[in-house]
Write a structure and sequence with these properties.
Elements lengths: L4 H7 L6 H17 L4 E6 L4 E2 L7 E2 L6 H12 L3 E7 L15 H4 E3 L5 E3 L1 H19 L3 E6 L2 H15 L6 E5 L6 E2 L22 E2 L4 H8 L4 E8 L2 H15 L3 E6 L6 E5 L4 E5 L2 H5 L4 H21 L1
Parallel strand pairs: 1-4, 1-8, 4-7, 8-11, 11-12
Antiparallel strand pairs: 2-3, 5-6, 9-10, 12-13, 13-14
Helix pairs in contact: 2-6, 3-10
The structure holds ligand PAZ.
Family: Belongs to the PPC synthetase family.
Organism: Mytilus coruscus
GO molecular function, one term: ligase activity
């Protein structure tokens, strides 16, 4: 059973094509360093926790990856290159603007048997595609997918270590909803759990906290933003402060499950800023991620200027 982060990473399998993905991540970071760009790692969506080695069933959580997808767009707008570490079926930047209908309903076949976007969707898709292609052509966005908790943690380490040479130009924006519990491989049944065995009792172990090695060893000079989600508002700020105190990173974004799309707190060692959307903002379609990223970019610039003195 893993009790330290090292044991956990040693004892869990690496995701498919791990070496290829790691190489791609390093190349992406090197390209941005040569272009002298700030780089942000955005983590997004929920991790799954398998119950069987040949997995039929797994535990999951509520996160759909809105925070990560929207934040990625706003970081790109502010000139950052983004590594988007996302749950495989999570919400994607840009794609979210495409009408949410079956893709086949967006298309039509012309008389000459070409496939075309239906006229009513053309304008919207043109707009989204232009922005997306500009970002891709300039090599500003790298998407890396995970599904399970162990995939996520293995890739988080690979991305973080790759970002080390970027020093304080690197931002880690850890918005993924990562399970605190898992079943170690040696305690996991190989085959599908049978209902003939009666009611299922699960015993889950604690996942070692990865923020500690991330801050101290993997990217010690980077600007690190973690997220704290709670459902009890009386715990929110104290838990965020505890995290800052324990891991000594720069910022915790604290949010409540029910209000997370309209208000958050930006918590540092010294300050607690309430950031929220007004009713008029909501009516005008403003998104809280825009306010979060504006605030973080300011903090990051300040961090870099102090560090560079
Ligand atoms: O993915 P989403 O937009 O549905 O939710 C975002 C969020 C609540 C997962 C994120 O803001 C967050 O708080 N992440 C950290 C969760 C945690 O405390 O583990």
């Amino acid at each position: 059973m893993a009790t330290t982060w090292k044991d956990f990473l040693d004892q869990t399998e690496k995701p498919d094509k791990f070496d290829e993905k790691s190489k791609e991540i390093i190349e992406f970071v090197n390209f941005q360093l040569r272009s002298k760009r700030h780089i942000v790692l955005v983590t997004s969506g929920g991790t799954t926790v398998p119950l069987e080695s040949k997995t039929v069933r797994f535990l999951d959580n509520f996160s759909v990856g809105s925070r990560g997808a929207l934040s990625t767009e706003y970081f790109l707008k502010r000139g950052y290159a983004v590594i988007f570490l996302t749950r495989n079926r999570g919400l994607r930047p840009f794609l979210r603007h495409v009408p949410k209908t079956n893709i086949l309903d967006l298309l039509t076949i012309t008389d000459s048997k070409d496939v075309k976007v239906k006229p009513e969707y053309e304008q919207k898709i043109l707009q989204v595609l232009q922005t997306y292609q500009e970002i891709k052509n300039e090599n500003l966005l790298l998407t890396v997918e995970f599904q399970t908790l162990s995939d996520y943690l293995q890739l988080l380490k690979a991305c973080s270590v790759a970002l080390q040479p970027a020093g304080n130009q690197a931002v880690l924006y850890l918005a993924a909803a990562v399970s605190d519990f898992y079943i170690p491989k040696d305690l996991m049944p190989e085959h599908k759990i049978q209902s003939s065995g009666g009611p299922l009792k699960l015993s889950l172990q604690l996942v070692p906290k990865m923020l500690e090695p991330l801050v101290k060893e993997w990217v010690p000079d980077a600007f690190v933003v973690s997220f704290k989600l709670e459902t009890d508002k009386d715990l929110l700020i104290s838990k965020a402060l505890q995290a800052i105190d324990k891991y000594q990173h720069q910022i915790v974004i604290a949010n409540l499950l029910e209000t997370r799309k309209k208000e958050i707190f930006v918590v540092t060692k010294e300050t607690q800023d309430h950031v929220s959307l007004s009713d008029a903002d909501i009516k005008n379609g403003k998104e809280i991620e825009e306010l979060i990223i504006d605030c973080l970019v300011e903090h990051h610039h300040q961090f870099c200027s102090v560090e560079n003195v």
